[in-house]
Write a structure and sequence with these properties.
Chain lengths: 299, 530
Amino acid sequence: MMEIVKSTNIDFIGLRYKAFVLSGFLVLLGIYAFVMVALGRGNLSVDFTGGTHIQIRFKEKIDVGSLRKALTDAGFRDIRVQEVAGTNDFFLKTKLLSIEGKRIEEARSEVLKRSTQKEFEVLGSNMVGESVGRELKKYAIVAVCLALIGIIIYIAFRFTCFSGIAATIATFHDVLCVFGIYFLFGKEINLLLITALLTIAGYSLEDTVVVFDRIRENHSKMGQKEDFGRIINLSINQVLGRTLITSLTTIIAVCAIMILGGEALMDFALPFFFGLIVGTYSSIFVASPILYMWRKRGL
Amino acid sequence: MLRSLRLRVAIVGVFLLVCLFYLLPNILEVKGALKRYLPSDKIRLGLDLKGGMHLVLDLDEHKMRENLLDRKFEALKTILITRGVRFLGLERRGEEFYVLVREEQREKLLDVMRREFPDLTSRGVRREGELVGASFTFLEKEMAHIKENALYQALETIRNRIDQFGVTEPVITKYGEGQILVELPGIKDPERALELIGRTAQLEFKLVDEENLKKGVPDTPPEGTEILPMRVKDREKGTVETFPILLKKETVLTGELLTDARVRFGGEFGNEPYVALEFNSEGARIFDRVTAENVGRRLAIVLDGVVYSAPVIRERISGGRASITGGFSLDEAKDLAIVLRAGALPAPVKVIQNITIGPSLGQDSIRKGIRATLLAGILVLVFMVVYYRVSGLIADLVLFLNILYLLGAFSAIKATLTLPGIAGIALTIGMGVDSNVLIFERIREELRLGRTIKAAIDTGYEKAWVTIFDSHVTTLITACVLFVFGTGPIKGFATTLILGMIINLFTAVFASKMIFDWMVLRFRPKRLSI
């Protein structure tokens, strides 16, 4: 029998205050990021702000500076040019939908042809009207809230109300952490990130459910008299093997996607990678201690 | 024991056969008589995988209202005159029509309005000194009805245009509140398609105001005229420039009376493509009258507010034929003929979302997505075998089954596989692995407690089942919310996840337990390789 972890006996509950400091910091970062994004700051994708996002590929090498200059000279003032490392691909992003009455697609083609004198191919473009962006932002928020409410109800029904709330706090914690990290590094906040965040929420919940499930089982087996902290510690130690192996296999899979999946899947895989780590951590160090402290106060 | 095992093998087997049945078209081409009995659709790929264009169009409601009010106003004027209502003033005030009559004409006016314009409602009759002023406006209900009709007309028109342009499997549907969704897979020239769909194609014939034009184009157009841009092609340079031209505001003929529009070659500049028009009998009659009355004048051909040409009428033209020249390229002439044949949109449309994926990016995505998923899958499979030995092999087998079921279900319900959908498959595999890990770890625990192999397997599955069920249901809740609220790519992700969760519950617990039971029954092992 091959084992990554032998029978362990770690006092997870005893580590709770250290964990709370770290989590508190990450959650504050996440809340800060959320407020900033709600105010319209941060690197929001055109999905939410409205605007145009274009991916082009030049036949030959072209300097990003000269491309940027050509576009700025032609009147595209508010435009971001991003180079995809190792290729001749560029992402162009602007909040504009039209320029001097012309559709942005036409204007862009004209300008690029004229100013760079180089052949290029439009790989893809994404133009979103402002109203669509607003709508989408609203939908994203509604979707996240509904999913969370549905999950609280389910867990409250299967376990206890406290468990439901503790699990939800842990889930919020994970989503906010990843959001905060993303914001901090100035990565683009787009639709795929929202998808990834919801997947993280699902995954983190699964982790929490596994731990809670074991706590429930041990609780009924060992009886009411046993110290609740001991039950939790025992439960976490018992499922530690499963937690680590699952996280490991998933991380292996996610890493493969990050390496080979290309730009589009990267937007999904990277936040998911962060989420996995935070999610595993939170079910042990956030959800369970909250449950413990709640119980201790006799609530 | 043996009996229940046989039953379980049968269930798994039947599902497998159904999936293979639906997956058949992806593996080999179905030909001949069999075609009637076998499914013929391959797994549908989303636009992000095969390339194409995703458009959301919004009908310009304001412009549509304006057009409608303009037309109603003209009708109102004509009817009031023909019915002998002697009005002293008639004007449009925003969305209201205002009629000024003498007291004795009041009843007659109201009577005519009731009979002839049931879609208009009175907004009050007021005394203005000796006279009476009455306001009328559209019923809101009527407006909503007209809007709805306009939307369907626009859908129909766009569908016609795309059909004639030739795109395989286009999607053209109503979307949200009064919007139109257009999806064009595998489109080669997106800019041209956009031009074709977005064009209003309002064709009008108007007379050039020769009298006022003698002094040159004025800054402000005199009453009853308008200044429009006219495009002129410089044949030597090959560029198109626009000049202003003064036209009479009245439209003598519109594109509504067209029966056909075709590309022809010829004209005064040699073999240049132009668009030949053919009118129905009513159109031909009007054309005949207008040309007869205006010999020597110029008749401007206006498309969406731009004058394409303004040829001099040399003689009366009967037979209802006309042509639009303007130095078109062949593609331009073809597209123009298509939009004229397909008819005009009831109002201009605005593109509010346009996602275009070039075909090479789509192929790129597929290649990378498949490569990444394969590598991820292989690594996980290898890990399972190394860590759990024979049991790991069973888990791998079950994962294969899982993927087969998932793809089969995809084909069966004709869902669309998108890039996030591939991510969804990866996630499903991840959760499948997790279920197995949960079960195996549980079995190990039971073995450590000194249970027999059979008892350890049974208890392991039983206890792990609760956890697996809970975790899958929570994920399923998230996936369902995403399915309801997500659009496009996110919906694709949600679809895979929903299918994946349900299939996972079946394969990871039911199918893998079956293999374990068979193994124990068949080999009666002394030690479990786990």
